[in-house]
């Protein structure tokens, strides 16, 4: 079922939660009804059909067992067995929620939730289960995903899919290698979806974005009062992923102190929340990703060898798009279909010259850059057929700004040699850092934004 056509019932004893969910959902669903008293739940379900129920697990003050949530989940299942039920759980209720899945809950979410995650979970819960019978009119096909690194018939992508098929059902930790934009997180999700843990959570964290001060809190959780702003306890990513898969992105960019803490958690299979002395056992499968060479980092003393061995039971290297240019037309047509449908436009065709231009482009940003280029062309294209002119691979404003900032005599007297030298310098820096633009920009003495402007200027 499409989320826009759904009727949603929210049952929670906190007025602020009801208000926030009603505000979020009123523009996303057909109807949203909120109720503070769970005793009225069955009466509401009898009055009109609901497609999904967002159900809190604790109602009485001081209660944190989740028993009330179990009770009302059972009553809903007795009277409305086809209604999707998503449990809303507070701090410390993760293991209880996992057990609730076995009792018939469709999914669960932690408080406080992320709005995008809640909407995605709700949309997934409304989809018919495989093999289930559904009456009424046939459902419209779902819009294809806007990004997919697994499309492609090149030998390189066939090899990646073959490895995923072999590794996914195992418990092996997997290290995903490849340049930015090659689709490492999407491969991680594919590994999870094809694993025995598919019905359990997939939790992702960009560890490079976590400063030293919040690293432990985000991954291992914290108790109330553990530090100045800790006004409530919080479950960390490890515990949230228990029973499922934890994906740590940009693993090569964390410092040695964080590496030591991570290694301890993986070795002991338990975490200690900040502010607590009690360890919490965790059962996760770890997937990690980096665009750096961990072996090179180990050789320089920047990465622990024992942690590297923990991470890479199996390595999967994703090829850059320039090494599988035969896949470019397939990916481009896929993205054109997605963005035409999303913008309610006719799906455009590609001229032979446009496809040739796309295949010849080096794609420093890989599949992600191709996706954005096609989206731009679909929106701004002048006709039903996309032409080479629809793909400029540069930002005219940035290029103009760069030209305006340069001395006039530089542009007019020696444009070609200087431009070539600058382009070569940028290419060499990016190559030295294996596509890591942040590190390349630092070496060049530029901000990341300034580097992007130069990439646009040189059509890179």
Polypeptide structure, described:
- The protein folds into four domains: 3-125, 3-Layer(aba) Sandwich (Rossmann fold), CATH 3.40.50.2300; 155-317, Rossmann fold (3-Layer(aba) Sandwich); 322-390, Helicase, Ruva Protein, domain 3 (Orthogonal Bundle); 396-457, Arc Repressor Mutant, subunit A, CATH 1.10.10.
- It is built from 20 helices and 14 strands.
- It has helices at 15-25, 41-47, 67-79, 94-102, 115-125, 155-167, 184-193, 212-220, 237-240, 256-268, 294-299, 305-311, 328-342, 352-360, 366-380, 396-405, 408-413, 415-432, 437-444, 448-457; strands at 7-11, 31-35, 52-56, 84-89, 107-110, 174-177, 202-206, 245-249, 270-271, 280-281, 285-290, 314-317, 349-350, 385-386.
- The strands form four sheets. Strands 2-1-3-4-5 form a five-stranded parallel sheet, sandwiched between helices. A five-stranded parallel sheet has the order 7-8-11-6-12.
- Strand 4 (84-89), helix 4 (94-102) and strand 5 form a beta-alpha-beta unit.
- It is globular and about 70 Å long.
- The protein starts with 6 loop residues before the first strand and ends with a helix.
